[in-house]
Design a protein that fits this description.
Helix 2 packs antiparallel against helix 3 and helix 5 packs across helix 6. The protein contains nine helices and 15 strands. It has a five-stranded mixed β-sheet with strand order 7-6-5-8-9. A four-stranded antiparallel β-sheet has the order 3-2-1-4. A four-stranded mixed β-sheet has the order 10-15-11-14, sandwiched between helices. It has three domains: 108 residues, eRF1 domain 1 (Translation, Eukaryotic Peptide Chain Release Factor Subunit 1, Chain A, 2-Layer Sandwich), CATH 3.30.960; 131 residues, eRF1 domain 2 (Nucleotidyltransferase, domain 5), CATH 3.30.420; 88 residues, Ribosomal protein L30/S12 (60s Ribosomal Protein L30, Chain: A, 2-Layer Sandwich), CATH 3.30.1330.30.
């Protein structure tokens, strides 16, 4: 699962040229047999476009990195999308659990809009299944659940009441305290996943275990919902429909909350709704929440005095393939947040709106 930390790294790299190649891929045969052909076609397109802007001597290191990166693609294990990012001193590919449109973007920064869009559209989240036998952590992106298997998870309770017998004089309060301490251990193990990426958390388990975890967890504010039951032996296939039902409700709630916040901001005159003004105030760090329609893409240039000017077509280094992508990156970098809305939801705001801090 691509993380916010990955996104921040990509957004922090400022290199010319920064090449981004994105495309939808397929998980199963025979559809995935077309994926290598699509990659080749996009690589050819990227090479041709770069050749119009740079000399072969300037391009050679980048193209070698691109060739190496393409050779590393493991096509039998691709997911729903693929993203390749290459500059003269950077090359990385991501298998994405969401589809992205096929695009070649050559710019001063990497194109992350589709990653941001996919991450928010799909509503990424964590699922923590509590059990003294084996507490499990799952990373969720839309309907896709991936179980975490590393040095932290799954995690098992050990000692009295778990792997050894309880002391003869122990009562129920002793065992309750042992469970609280174990779930504190679980909470500490979760820190490395949550500290840079505060996603919604769904907590599953029997009522008593959920209650103990809520008592001791520092992540209680992140808990979006709970799932009651014993999930020690539950498979991903069995868990998916239960979790997805919760996630769909959560996504609708978040979008409704964003629209309500927009309505309040309009009343308080703390919102701008043209992309030129959104650009200017985002650059000033005034963006609290950016709302935009999911298929709103606008090519533009930045004038000498820093203004955004829309253009009709892409094709040169001076033109940003998508100004919305750039605005997203600026808002996130300056501590704001984003909400991707359905097409038409922001029609009276010209498809984009920025709620201001002041």
């Amino acid at each position: 699962m691509i993380t916010r930390q990955d996104l921040h790294q990509l957004q922090s790299l400022l290199k010319v040229p920064a090449l981004s190649i994105l495309l939808p891929t397929h998980r199963t045969s025979p559809d995935n047999k077309q994926d290598p052909i699509r990659v080749k076609n996009l690589v050819d397109e990227a090479t041709e476009r770069l050749a119009t802007e740079f000399s072969w001597r300037e391009l050679e290191p980048l193209l070698k990195r691109l060739e190496t990166l393409v050779s590393e693609i493991d096509y039998p294990y691709t997911l729903d999308g693929l993203a390749l990012y290459v500059s003269h001193d950077f090359a990385k590919l991501y298998y994405l659990p969401f589809a992205v449109p096929a695009r070649v973007v050559i710019d001063q920064t990497f194109a992350t809009r589709d990653l941001v869009y996919g991450m928010h559209r799909a509503l990424r989240y964590w699922v923590l299944l509590l059990s003294q036998s084996s507490t499990r952590l799952l990373a969720g992106t839309a309907q896709i659940l991936e179980e975490v298997h590393d040095r932290n998870f799954p995690i098992q309770m050990t000692g009295p009441g778990a792997t050894t017998a309880l002391p003869y004089e122990a009562d129920s309060s002793y065992l309750d305290d042992r469970h609280r301490r174990f779930f504190q251990q679980v909470d500490r193990a979760f820190i490395s996943y949550a500290k840079d990426d505060e996603l919604p958390l769904i907590v599953g388990g029997v009522d008593r275990q959920i209650s103990f975890f809520q008592e001791v967890s520092q992540y209680k504010p992140l808990i979006a919902d709970t799932l009651t039951g014993n999930f020690d032996r539950a498979t991903i296939h069995e868990l998916t429909p239960q979790v997805w039902s919760i996630v769909q409700n959560l996504r609708e709630t978040q979008r409704a909350n964003a629209l309500q916040e927009l309505e309040h901001a309009v009343s308080a005159q703390k919102v701008v709704s043209t992309i030129e003004e959104v650009w200017r105030l985002a650059q000033e760090g005034r963006g609290k929440l950016l709302l935009f329609e999911k298929n709103y893409h606008v090519p533009a240039i930045v004038t000498e005095d820093g203004r955004l000017e829309l253009v009709d077509q892409v094709g040169s280094m001076e033109v940003m393939d998508d100004a919305v992508d750039e605005i997203i990156e600026v808002v996130l970098a300056k501590g704001g947040s984003v909400a991707i809305m359905d097409d038409g939801a922001l029609s009276i705001h010209q498809h984009i709106a920025l709620i201001l801090r002041y």
